[in-house]
Amino acid sequence: MQEGSFSCYTYQMDTIGHRGASAAFLREDLGPCTCHRRIRSTLDVIANKWAVPVFVELVRAKGEPLRFTQLARAIPGITQKELTKQLREMEAAGLVLRKVYPVVPPKVEYTLTQLGWSLDPVLDALARWAATYGNVVADNQARFMERRKADGADP
């Protein structure tokens, strides 16, 4: 590995495992908690209530800029304050480009940056995983809560 290069987790696919395909993540030593901090800081940006809906709308625009009002209309339930906050966080992280036009009324457009587009396959993989295993997770959680309730424990 070259000096200054980054390698944290690698993904290996074993297609001969006894349960079909299984994945293993291998951690290379980069010092205490470096990998965890990087993953956590990424999740802090993309794993909140409004990040994924905003991201999805920007992806659906296929690179065309979207105005604030277009985004607000496309995302049910989001308030102007929440959308503003989310777009600022994504802009601060370098995922979204904000272009302001000097006109009255103000015209502001948003597009994904190259860095933002790099998340598309990551979120696509997460969506495929959720489609495959989401019901299994929900069933497991329900059974867990039933067991806790039967044991007399607080949920």
How would you characterize the overall build of this protein?
The chain is an alpha+beta fold and 155 residues long. Helices cover 50% and strands 17% of the residues. It contains 6 helices and 5 strands; from the N terminus they run ββααβααββαα. It has helices at residues 34-46, 51-60, 68-74, 80-92, 114-117, 120-150, and strands at 9-14, 22-27, 66-67, 96-101, 107-112. A 3-stranded antiparallel β-sheet has the order 3-5-4.
- Based on secondary structure, the structural category is alpha+beta
Ends apart, CA distance between termini: 47 Å
What would you call the shape?
Answer: elongated
User: What's the pLDDT, averaged over the residues?
Assistant: 83
Number of helices: 6
* Spans where pLDDT lies below 50 across 5 or more residues: 1-26
Order of helical and strand elements? EEHHEHHEEHH
Short overview:
The protein is an alpha+beta fold and 155 residues long.
List keywords for this structure.
5 strands, single chain, three-stranded antiparallel β-sheet, 6 helices, 17% strand, two-stranded antiparallel ribbon, alpha+beta, 155 residues
List the helices and strands and how they pair.
Layout lengths: L8 E6 L7 E6 L6 H13 L4 H10 L5 E2 H7 L5 H13 L3 E6 L5 E6 L1 H4 L2 H31 L5
Antiparallel strand pairs: 1-2, 3-5, 4-5
